[in-house]
Specification:
Keywords: Membrane, Transmembrane, Transmembrane helix. The chain is an all-alpha fold. It has a domain of about 70 residues. The chain contains 9 helices and no strands.
Length: about 210
């Protein structure tokens, strides 16, 4: 056993307070940009949105059942869970910063189309790194937990695919009118939310 194996793991409560800290820091940065740094409104609004998103995430931590918090604390106290969380922190911060930089630069105007495309997809790099960390975590956990994870991923993928297929048919029939860019951007967040719900249900079923 390594010397650092007795260190306390990252619990959901600590995650919640970390989200609160990042959210408040983002709102403070938005306030400084508004009243001290004379930032444009879009930059202030973006950091306000990031801060509000993290605070909403912290609120969601309070709504999960106690048994789920206990289960997550146990999973992330294991070596695979700790490695996953250590990889996750810089990815989260990098995503927030790259999202701000991408939207800010595009709104300021970029003449070159290839450069504009590169800047637009800058936040995708963080998502790719997240997927890499998640796949590594999936390979390192035990067989039962891996089954729960893969079933949750499969259920989420199928449900979101059906939802978007139905939405496309409704859009084609002019029953609904949804901005295509917004619809595509929401694919990954919907996958994550559906995966989380499916994982909670499957964990309750198998454990």
């Amino acid at each position: 056993m390594s010397a650092g194996s007795d260190a306390p793991g990252m619990t959901l409560r600590r995650w919640m307070w970390s989200f609160v800290a990042i959210g408040l820091a983002s709102l403070a940065l938005a306030a400084a940009g508004r009243w001290l740094l004379a930032w444009p409104d879009d930059a202030v609004g973006l950091w306000t949105g990031i801060g509000a998103g993290y605070l909403l995430g912290a609120l969601l931590f309070l709504l999960v059942p106690r048994w789920w918090r206990t289960h997550c604390d146990e999973m992330y106290a294991q070596p695979a869970g700790r490695r996953y969380l250590r990889a996750l922190w810089p990815i989260m911060l990098g995503y927030s910063l790259s999202l701000f930089l991408s939207i800010f630069l595009i709104r300021r105007g970029i003449e070159s189309v290839p450069l504009r495309a590169l800047v637009a997809v800058l936040p995708v790099l963080a998502i790719v790194l997240l997927m890499r960390a998640a796949l590594r975590y999936l390979r390192e956990i035990d067989e039962l937990q891996r089954r729960i994870e893969t079933e949750a991923i499969g259920i989420a993928s199928l449900l979101v695919s059906v939802l978007y297929f139905a939405g496309g048919l409704l859009q084609k029939a002019k029953v609904i009118d949804i901005d295509s860019a917004a619809a595509m951007i929401w694919v990954f967040p919907l996958l994550c939310m559906t995966y989380g719900i499916a994982k909670m249900i499957l964990t309750r079923r198998y454990l």
